[in-house]
Amino acid sequence: MEAFEPFLTPGVTGIAVAVLVALSIGGVIYALFQPLLSGNRRRDKRLSGIAARPQSAELRKKVGDGDRRRKSVQDQLKDFEDRQKAKLQKQNKASLAVRLEQAGLAWERKHFIYLSIASAVVGALIGLIVSHNILIALGVGFVGGFGFPRWFVNFKRKRRFNAFLDELPNAVDIIVRGVKAGLPLGDCIKIVAKEAREPVAGEFRKIVETQVMGISLTDAVGRMPDRVPLAEANFFAIVVAIQQKAGGGLSEALGNLSKVLRSRKALQRKIKALSAEAKSSAAIIGSLPFVVSTIIYVVAPDYISMLFTRTAGHLIIAGGLFWMFVGIMVMRKMINFDF
Prior knowledge:
It is a multi-pass membrane protein. One of its GO terms (cellular component) is plasma membrane. The model has no long low-confidence stretch (mean pLDDT 76). Among the domains are: 44 residues; 189 residues, Up-down Bundle (Receptor-associated Protein). It is mainly alpha-helical.
């Protein structure tokens, strides 16, 4: 050791340590990437793919036909979904006549205008009788003329859509049983048009009437989401369109669709049950300021009248209403779920 002491200077020791570290790192890198560098992994992957490939020509032909058919169905489904999305986007900006039809109201535009005028007059009279203030009466009349008729149409429209969702799975089950019994799809739709409850029966009657006019079954069913802009109606139209173009077991496809529709309905009810407590809390919190203000006005009107007689009180009321509106919108966003 004494003979090597002249060579064990700090510089030589540092170089030796650096060389050893470099060799160690190189060994670790080689051990990690050796399979990739040698090509063994690519070889094993290629051999596994060859082993999994069907051996006979008949099996390879079946697999190829299945792949081509699956790709064709996927392309048709994507094209149909794109067209249906475009239609649904138009439905979001539907005209008044379309919304009246979707609500199940046999009204014309003039009937809606008559209702708006009557609501405005009644609202103005009620506001004038209660407040004896012409500005308040005009405000109530404005709300009655422009708000109440639209709320009524939207209420009827939503209730009709809910009734449609409740009955559609039963209609699909009728079609499934008819197809399994050997009936054509058109005859099964006629049975639904006669036996189902409204509004499903009415929508399927329109499909039958459209076919009588010479339009194909696929196009006739494809028009149903225009009248009932719901995802469930769109699902039914897609299944029928794919089956008519690509073939396949219609009863199995519609049976799966019926299960999906019932599962969506069950999920919707579960969401309503879970969010009921939050909605109740939001309603109580939102109504509490108005209830307390009314009680104070009855018990001590002089105490709260400053809010209505002074400019500072008006500003306080405006600020409070603004922040209440913000809070209500936030709570509404938190307890409303899309599914």
